[in-house]
Write a structure and sequence with these properties.
Blueprint: H1 3-7, H2 10-17, H3 26-40, E1 43-48, H4 56-74, E2 85-88, H5 107-121, E3 125-127, H6 135-147, E4 153-158, H7 164-169, E5 176-180, H8 195-211, E6 215-219, H9 223-237, E7 244-249, H10 255-263, E8 268-274, H11 282-291, H12 294-306
Parallel strand pairs: 1-2, 1-8, 2-3, 3-4, 4-5, 5-6, 6-7, 7-8
Length: 307
């Protein structure tokens, strides 16, 4: 992470990035996703921001919150195809994270409980991808879940990682896949450092996945690449609009573009993060500022426009 981002005081990080987080309670996040669907026809994925877990009590709280999320989403009264999905990070359920040399104790069991509850409630789940230390663990968890019959569980793959080309071949047949470039900085021998190259891989991998029968969640804010996906990759793969969707982050100003996609009959989904207290959201917000420094200018511009 850029050292300048790291030293920005937490209150400033929160100020500039607050529009990108749907509140500090589950009820607030649920209200946001309902409004997105009601007013704009946008689908949503809910994510609890839970960085830097240090205690078993924190891990347990995250588990309990996700169980509540599955119940709450199922009770929104939305048709099954419009229900928000849940996105979870394996590091949220252990005080012994792999990226710090731990063994991820408790994480797999928690993920299995969440996915079982979500499956009972008819709610989709995606196991999010974190830094390189978590990749094998995450893909192994996905395979275990599918072998146990949890076909409502989807994968997330980062195109920046060199290994991802091989990981495409090891995915459970027909599973749902969110394709992202990834926000975790990795060494050059592990991952690409050139963003245009990462985005070209988005198109390449999306084509391969569609041809193999996967449901593709194409996640980027780059309008040009979304257009290339919709206008070139999808027709070439000869699939209909029931086999893919476009995803973006809540708060990123793409309203007109998303509305245009919806007019074309294309599913669009926003990744909607929320927190249980703003202290748990700060690390996520710092990473977003690091990845997208223009966020500061955009938020300032929006504030002046509202005035």
């Amino acid at each position: 992470m850029n050292p300048l981002i790291r030293v920005i005081p937490a209150f400033l990080v929160r100020f500039f990035a607050k529009p990108y987080v749907a509140g500090d309670a589950l009820d607030q996040a649920l209200a946001v996703v309902q409004k997105l669907f009601r007013d704009r026809g946008l689908l949503a994925t809910l994510d609890l921001l839970a960085e830097d877990i240090r205690t078993d009590a924190q891990a347990q709280r995250n588990l309990e919150t996700y169980l509540q999320m599955a119940d709450a989403v199922a009770g929104l009264g939305l048709p099954p195809e419009a229900r928000p999905t849940l996105s979870l990070k394996p590091s949220s359920y252990t005080a012994r994270p792999l990226h710090e040399g731990g063994d991820a104790a408790g994480s797999l069991a928690a993920i299995e409980r969440i996915c079982a509850r979500a499956g009972e409630r008819g709610v989709g789940v995606s196991i999010d991808m974190e830094g390189r230390h978590w990749t094998d663990f995450t893909l192994d968890a996905l395979r275990r879940l599918h072998q146990a019959g949890h076909r409502h569980v989807g994968a997330v793959l980062q195109t920046r990682l060199h290994r991802t080309e091989r990981d495409l071949d090891a995915l459970p047949a027909g599973c749902r896949v969110r394709l992202v470039i990834g926000i975790y900085r990795e060494p050059a021998d592990i991952a690409l450092v050139d963003k245009p190259a990462m985005k070209e891989r988005l198109l390449d991998y999306a084509d391969r996945l569609l041809r193999r029968g996967h449901y593709v969640e194409f996640a980027t804010h780059d309008d040009a690449y979304v257009r290339r996906f919709v206008e070139q990759v999808v027709p070439k793969a000869a699939v209909g609009p029931d086999r893919f969707e476009v995803q973006m982050l809540y708060g990123v100003p793409r309203d007109r573009f998303l509305a245009d996609l919806r007019r074309q009959g294309i599913r669009a989904r926003l990744y909607v993060p929320f927190a249980l207290g703003w202290d748990m959201a700060i690390e996520y917000l710092r990473r977003r500022l690091d990845e997208y420094p223009a966020m500061v200018w955009l938020v300032t511009k929006n504030l002046f426009q509202r005035q």
